[in-house]
Amino acid sequence: MVFSRFSxxxxxxxxxxxxxxxxxxxxxxxSEPSIVAFNTxxxxxxxxxxxxxxxxxxxxxxxxxxRPIKDGVIADFDxxxxxxxxxxxxxxxxxxxxxxxxxxxxxxxxTEVERRAVKDSAYRAKASEVHLVDEPVAAAIGAxxxxxxxxxxxxxxxxxxxxxxxxxxxxxxxxxxxxxxxGDAMDDAIIHYIKRKHNLLIxxxxxxxxxxxxxxxxxxxxxxxxxxxxxxxxxxxxKTITVSDExxxxxxxxxxxAILQAVRDVLEQIPPELSADIYDRGIMLSGGGSLxxxxxxxxxxxxxxxxxxxxxxxxxxVLGAGKMLMDEGLLKxxxxx
Length: 337
Prior knowledge:
The chain is α+β, with helices and mostly antiparallel strands. The chain has helices spanning 50-53, 77-92, 112-124, 135-142, 183-198, 204-214, 245-251, 253-269, 272-281, 295-303, 316-325, 328-334, and strands at residues 10-14, 18-23, 27-33, 36-39, 45-48, 63-66, 69-70, 73-74, 101-106, 129-134, 153-158, 163-169, 172-179, 200-201, 225-232, 238-244, 283-286, 307-309. The strands form 5 sheets. Strands 3-2-1-9-10 form a 5-stranded mixed sheet, with helices on both faces. Strands 13-12-11-17-18 form a 5-stranded mixed sheet, with helices on both faces.
């Protein structure tokens, strides 16, 4: 390509909740919510990312705020293409005509049709080349795990739409599992619990705030509470209630249990030699969903294995994809599409 040496190569973690963009030689330049706000009358984009998130649940009739990515895959092709185009243009900065090479992290078990949808959206957003990599592999590389060595490395990447679990050895995934239960499922569980227990209707943003402030996977040292505002379903008026960390732990029990089961399923499938490696090295946690309080402790208690967080859980996938972008040999070994 004539302009290839001027192009701005990108790595993208196209997440259900958040999109991160890494630019060659510049590092992570963008991390914004995966949300697009449309004007349904004119068809134009009103806002993308942080600005669009502020509109969630607060838009007038002619503005529609949508999440193009659902459970780790594209649910709204038009919105996904517009969002990608916006983020790519923003990341490229002063090189508007460049057609970048792009490496994108995707969940381990998405279908061939879903992979094709991701690539097509990136090509329509003016990419010159698109390579897909498994998110847990990218997260492991981003966390600096020795994935090319003949030893077992286990990573659990808890994102917004999916939790990806993988055991990697000799630059390959020995066994992987992807479940469509992660941060968004936790938010939904909180919404349903508050509705069922307190007859109060709350929105996505409130549920996420509850999860971040008082949510936990295992008991806290000191109990905490939070005042929650919503619409009372019986009375039809705004109301404030107080919820405790214990209640929210109950609400999160099912999604946390599903994540733990995915970890156990992978541990049961791997060869004994790699099991011994993981017993010594432990499990690494990454992704925004892994920031749920005491999730690491809960997995440690249930598996009796060492568990620790990667240095930068939110950026691990995009940092790993960025390393592959800059290392052709690594990209060839790990690209899945």
